Amino acid sequence: MLGLNGFLFFDLEYNPKTAKVREYGFILGDCRVRAVNSAKLESAVEKAKFIVGHNILRHDIPILKDYFSIDFPNIKALDTLMLSSLLFPRKPYHKLRKEYLHSEDEKSDPLKDAELCKTLLEDCINKWKSFPWQLQLLLYCLLFDKPGFAPFFEIVGKSNSTEIKEKRKEIFNWIAEEYRTKLCLSNYREDIQKYPVEWSFLLTLFHEEGPSDFVPHWVRYQYPHLETILHSRRLVPCENPICPYCTDQLNSTKQLQKWFGFPDFRSFSEEETIPLQQQVVESAMRGESLLAVFPTGGGKSMTFQLPALIAGTQVGALTVVVSPIVALMKDQVDVLEKRRQIGEAAYINSMLSPAERKDAIEKVRSGEKCILYISPESLRSNTIFKLLMERRVERIVVDEAHCFSSWGHDFRVDYLYLAEFLRDLQTEKKLETPIPISCFTATAKKSVVEDICSYFKERLNIELVQFISPAKRSNLTYKVVESSESQNERRKQLINLLREYAGPKIIYASKVKTTESLAEELYNRGFASACYNGKMESEKKMVIQDQFQNEEVDTIVATTAFGMGVDKDNVELVAHYEISSTLENYVQEAGRAGRNPNLQASCVALFHPNDLNTSFQILQQSKLSAQEIATVWRVLKKMAGNHNRLIMSALEIADQCGWTEKETDVGVNTTKVKLAVLVLEEQGFLKRKRNRTQMFGSSISVESAEQAREAIGSDKIEIPNSTESIAYRIIHHIISKRWTRSPECALDELKVNLGLNQQQANDGLRLLRSLHLLNEDDDWSVRLQRKGNDTPRSLLNAAASLQKELLKACEGKGVNDRFVLDITRLNSLLNQRTDFVGASTSRRNLFIFRGILRYWAHESVAEIHLVEAGHQIYQIEFLVDPNVVKENLEKQWKIFDSVIEVLIEMQKEQTSRSGNVVWFSLNGLISRMYGEKAVARLEMQQQLEFALLFLHLVGSITLEHGLVVFYTGLVMELNPEAKQRIFTPNDFEMLDAHYKHKSEAIHIVGEYAKTMLIDERMAQQLLEDYFLMDIEDFRFKYMQGVALTESVSNELKQKIESVNVEQRKIIKSRRKHILVGAGPGSGKTHLLVHKVASLLWIEEAKPDSILCLTYTRAACRELRKRLYNLAGPLASKVNISTFHSLAFSILGVQGNKKALENSDEVVVKAAELLESGEDMGVGTPSVILVDEFQDLSAGEYRLLRALYDLGEKEPRVIVVGDDDQSIFAFRGSSSEYFQKFADEFPNTEKFYLTTNYRSVAGLVHANAKLLGMMTERVKEDSVQHALKQGMAELNFYEEKDKTIAAFAAAEILADKFSRKSEESYCILTRDNAEIFLAAAKLEEKQISYRLLKGRDKDKCPIEKTREVLGFSKILQENPRVGNIPWSVKEFRELAENYKLLHKKESTFELFDALVDDFIEVETACGENEITLGVFNEYLNEVSYSDFTAKNIGRISIGTMHSAKGLEWDNVILALGSWNVKTVDEKTTQDNYRLLYVAATRAKKSLTVIGVENMLPTEWLSHFKRKGRVKNVKMPKVLHIETGLGDIALGQYLKKNDDSDVYVERLQKSLEREPLGLSLSIDSHVANGNYCIKQGNLYWAWFAKDFTGGLVKSLAKNVLIPQRAILSQVVRWTSEEGQETWVPLFRLEFRRE
Q: What is the average pLDDT across 358-377?
């Protein structure tokens, strides 16, 4: 033994940031030195034989060589870190115990550390002496020549070779006896010679009693093969049947008894010589990667838990279980704890609070837990990655592995990140062998098994050993019961079924709403029921789960979210309210019953063939289209600009794609974005990184936490949860990592490790920045927006104006007042007031409005909730007095403006940087704006952060780096080579294949259900074969050899294709451009309905990507209603709109009556906006269908082209029309676009519908003569064929006078109606004036009629009527707004309550008609929900004339133009002296088409009253001449409804003079006087005009145009206005913005 002479004990202090040695210290004999200069050190090194230090090999010796040029051989170095870890394996010293330091902030003394090192060595010598001589000799043989250890044997003494040789056998005998129950020693001798250091650590570790997980992390890292040896000698059973260790510690049956109390593993069949459970457990213990398919209730959880518990006990390893459902994680951990008293498992998911999450992580990190459940989404978490870096990971278990496969029924995209996650983890850990994988599922057919195996083989080169049980559950009875399509009948059926079972029950339903309503109904009927679905809050789900396990709830109504892995062993019944969408789901969910093998349980499914369409509908709605992925890619490229790295939240991406305007569910939008990003990643467009926000420990500006304490203030730090206390905890955490190998601190890691929430972390970081304790040079970057005429400052100015408008709209609201605000309507009012509609500013303003509201929410100004995405209606509840917000407005805007100014200046200075990107630090920005002293002001820092966020939200700037402080961003690296690519159908194939497999699965489950109703034994065989057979063989046996991949049932497909031969060709056509020429009565609407249904169900187009454009609201309604009746609820998502409604939507405004008068101007502005290339968040349609295409105006055609060119992929375009019916040239319509469609849209396929379903043959033949007179027809060679054979009643009466013709038409109609009142009739005139004359005659004869939309289309803005405004106010203030929609019943009750409150003001004829019509429209698609936004949109589309009192009966009166698209049994044309033939050929052709349209409205009879020589002779030749109408008498009374244009409006405005008293008096009367009030009409002698008055109060004057037009025309027939009935009171806004009440009347004209 040499002693310690010649040993140099050494330590140094080194700063890696400055790369300098601060000082060093050493002890050599009696010499003790602490110095900076190297002279004394060099002298000591020359004298020393050996050098001793703590971590000297890895740290000090490399620095000695690089810094002092002292090259000390490693073999001469003794490392006390390595030695102490070897000799004290149960208490390894990671650090020297520096007890001379009174706090962590004091600087280390290298001389004292050298003394500690010497003391530690002396402890090691004493420990060595306690070892048996066999172990001492063994360690000497293994380590005598190893760096870091060799000098130790100079101290404790060397052994000679003779001694070793003599005692060799004795040593081996000692090893065999000492380690027989601690290690597997089979064939160990060769292994120990090959890996001497690793075995040395192993021998000392297991020489002492204790757990096996105390091998220090640094030892594992430096000697990675130690992991392999530990695994093979402690965990993998050898083949030696008499190995003492393996036969005891690694006996799977003994371990099963130990942990779970079962004497044996369960066998699934008699053929199993070794139970399959046991085979899987032992495979895992051998370290194999495997895939196991067990039946539900087959104990698969125990099968992976047992090897995990063994691994945790034997090698201190962690098994990570990736589980798809949070309920499943909690359930399995609870079962282990409560049933088995096993507390070694934990889970980390969204259900946990920050404190619970921190506790779970600490327990995993410390080794207390050996099983960790995480979600697949957690694989993206940097915190989880770092946690696993600190533990030995024995195995990754993929539970419910069918979710992993793209062929599987519950495919989860985040599972596909697993391979990359494992590669990174294995690389960082320097593992010699891959981490084994175990995949478990109860429902995996052959293709899924192949898919899972190929994934791991291709991506990780891992072969999975397969263990597949063919067994089925013997204690479950399956039954399918034929059910009713009626929900009421089905619920009765279910309740009767439930009453047959006393034990716990689970009911599965396909929709969230069904689970809620069904659970409520069952509770009301006496069941202890509760619902469980994915939309519920995490805390609520945990409560429900516990209540079910504890028997407080015995009936759960759930979606499939409750389906996988939930373990309650006494469930007697699993009932499916609708059968599952796949057999896998069905078996999974049914498998929740009878988990106790001794319990006989039932699985009952209610089934109706239409249930399949519900499953198909859910699938269709969940699909992500190729076009949507292409939109995401386009947004990402745009937002990245010249950069390749991009950080955006999923919600921001969805917003840029225009999805948030259509969908309020954040989860739906974020899921779509993440799936799109995954597909883009799979196809090489980008690479998604782990979600990460990091700052570096080396960026701190203080040397110690004590300096930080002084800067922050010790007294404030002591206050619990104060910002100062949190800031100190953060800086202390960063300092503690400063000298580690991984000094970076991710924001999520800070939150988890310190138990902080987002706000606390942000506040702490702000304080540290303000005190200059964090150096963050240029850690923020923004992109200054410049687009068109918009600049950062102009956008900010716009935001200033718009925030004022928002606050103005909120006037009268206070703190805690909850109200709704329609942003689209507010935007519309703003545009009306400034006299422009449709510039890109409209859409921009909508974006800014949304940004301001989001900012209000972030700054806690107000609670903001998006009630209806499609209508941009928000619920607002102020948390701050709006007046205070208004007062702070000017101050805020000065800050915002200053930020923009400074950023612009900085951008000019940063000439070396490209583009509009500006880099800066937050402190630098503060200093530049307000001076250096302002940096210390925490509130200033917060103000600037909020300012940057505001500017980002309103679009003035785009935050890039730094944005993650406010949002959880997806970190993406865009492939620069892929930026020029577009997303193609080939890129979509992977996802498309997945959807096709899901469709086929629905067909198969339908086949199973139908077979169960006929032959249960055959159906069960089908079920078994499904999971065992190759899919091709299964199809051949059960599906006629066909892969049914269409997302539609055969019954519905046949229904959709049930049309005539001509129409079927169109429906089956897949051409991109289709033109359909459809003559009158040829089933055009029928065709459109079936074509859209085919697109939805057969061609599988996304509902919201289909755009149907029609010309009238009535046509929209009819199409929507008929489409729903055919296609079901899927049709409700199809966008069916008029051209002008679409234009308003694009512009971000609501329709208004003034704009409708110039609708083509509105359409043009929308087209211009699309053509500008500006991103408006408008989704690109994949299919555009246009009805009445022949009537397109130039603006409408331009809008169509703009939509066509909007996306990267051109949409399909299908147009339907008839150029023979183009009759609206006066409003700019032209058939030229119909005629040249095929030229401008290449490869157009043309179809003509020639079968007339409307008119009898006689009418068709007669009207064909009119076609012969038209020129330049597209359908020149096409001839219509009548389906209805028979003669038509065609009569012609000669009458030149238009007035008499109108009266005569009414007389003829009255006569016909008296004989056949069951038929429908219509009088059509050339001009508006004759409509009222005919109407007067019918009134005289007491025949009810309705006026077709004509002159009075928009006489009264219905949404501004007094009763509708009052009702709308009640709706806006209703507490239900913002929470849940109203049902139809509740909406009607609100309407009835409003009427009761105002019963003296009106008879409510208009109001009742409007409410009835609205409910009819909204329930046309089967919905029972009504929202404020939908009601507001409806009000902006309907017209007053839709609901006037005369809109009843089977008789109509209108102009020839107004009859377009309608039909009646009997039509009477009152033409009078209308001359069809004119000198102008174009006018003549227009007249032919107008006459053709009017004539083809008739089904059975057509009567014409006119002048024979003014009408086409060939056409009239088919008519019977009836001479003149005789005995026509002029009516005595005529009624006219006035509109706003008929009243002189100036008298209702205040002029700031004496007349204002009169105006106020009249306004008060208009607010309270009841409708129906009778008023007199007087003629003013001076000006010849008429006035309406009540006593001496003048209510109204006729407008000049009204007096000189219609009133004058009626006066010629001696009809004079006598009386006025108050019909409506309307709120009108003048061009100057003054609002006032205006009365409207029903005028009575009488013959004098």
A: 87
Helix (H) or strand (E) holding 1106: strand 1106-1110
What pLDDT is stored for residue 505 in this prediction? 93
Long-range contacts of 718-727 (CB under 8 A, 24+ apart): 721/760, 723/763, 723/764, 723/767, 723/938, 724/767, 726/754, 726/756, 726/760, 726/761, 726/763, 726/764, 727/763, 727/764, 727/765, 727/767, 727/768, 727/773
On whether the CB atoms of residues 586 and 562 are closer than 8 A, the answer is no
What 3-state DSSP class applies to 256? helix
Is residue 1217 within a helix (H) or strand (E), and if so which, with residue range? strand 1212-1217
| pLDDT score recorded for residue 839 | 45
The neighbouring-strand residues paired with 1216 are 1076
Q: Output the pTM of the full model.
A: 0.72
SS3 1116: helix
Query: For residues 1023 and 1088, what is the distance between their CA atoms, to the nearest angstrom?
Result: 40
Cα(549)–Cα(547) distance, integer angstroms: 5
CB 280 within 8 A of CB 303: yes
Provide the residue type at 1377 as one letter.
V
pLDDT tens digits, one per residue of 109-126:
999 999 999 999 999 999
Contacts by residues 1624-1627 (CB-CB < 8 Å, ≥ 24 positions apart): 1624/1356, 1624/1361, 1624/1362, 1624/1406, 1624/1440, 1624/1571, 1625/1361, 1625/1362, 1625/1566, 1625/1567, 1625/1569, 1625/1571, 1626/1356, 1626/1357, 1626/1360, 1626/1361, 1626/1362, 1626/1540, 1627/1360, 1627/1361, 1627/1362, 1627/1365
1081 contacts 1254 by C-beta, under 8 angstroms: yes
Rounded Cα distance, 1469 and 1467, in Å: 7
- pLDDT at position 737 is 59
Whole-Å CA distances, 222 to 73, 95, 227, 1298: 19, 17, 11, 106
Q: In which band, very low, low, confident or very high, does the pLDDT at 1444 lie, cut at 50, 70 and 90?
A: low
Whether 194 and 146 have beta carbons less than 8 Å apart is answered as no
Measured in whole angstroms, the distance separating CA 439 from the mean position of its chain's CA atoms is 29
DSSP string, 1396-1447: HHTTTT---HHHHHHHHHHHHHHTTTT---B-HHHHHHHHHH--GGGSSTT-
Residue 775 contacts residue 699 (beta carbons within 8 Å): yes
Please list, residue by residue across 1416-1447, b when 16 or more beta carbons sit within 10 angstroms of its beta carbon and e when fewer do: ebbebbebeebbbbbbbbbbbbbbbbbbbebb
Tokens 């000049």 -> residue? 1600
Tokens of 884: 């205070």
Q: What angle do CA 1368, 1373, 1377 make, to 5 degrees?
A: 95
CA distance 1511 to 1516: 7
DSSP code per residue over 741-803: S--EEEHHHHHHHHT--HHHHHHHHHHHHHTT-B--TT-EEEEE--BTTB-HHHHHHHHHHHH
Calculate the alpha carbon distances from 1279 to 786, 1246, 1494 in Å: 58, 15, 19
List b or e across 1469-1487, with b for residues whose CB sees 16 or more CB atoms inside 10 angstroms. bbbbebebbeeeeeebbbb
Whole-number pLDDT of residue 355:
64
- Which among 421, 397, 403 is positioned nearest to 291, based on CA atoms? 397
Question: Which pLDDT does position 915 carry in this prediction?
Answer: 60
- Give how far Cα 986 sits from Cα of 627, 975, 983, Å: 12, 18, 8
Q: Tokens in use for 1356?
A: 């009264």
Q: Distance between CA 1119 and CA 1135 in Å, rounded?
A: 11
d(CA 1023, CA 1414): 48
Please state the φ and ψ torsions of residue 264, each to the nearest 5 degrees.
-145, 160
Taking only the tens place, the pLDDT of each residue in 1597-1642 is: 999 888 888 888 788 878 889 999 998 999 988 888 788 999 999 8
Give whichever of 482-486, 918-922, 1635-1639 has the largest mean pLDDT: 1635-1639
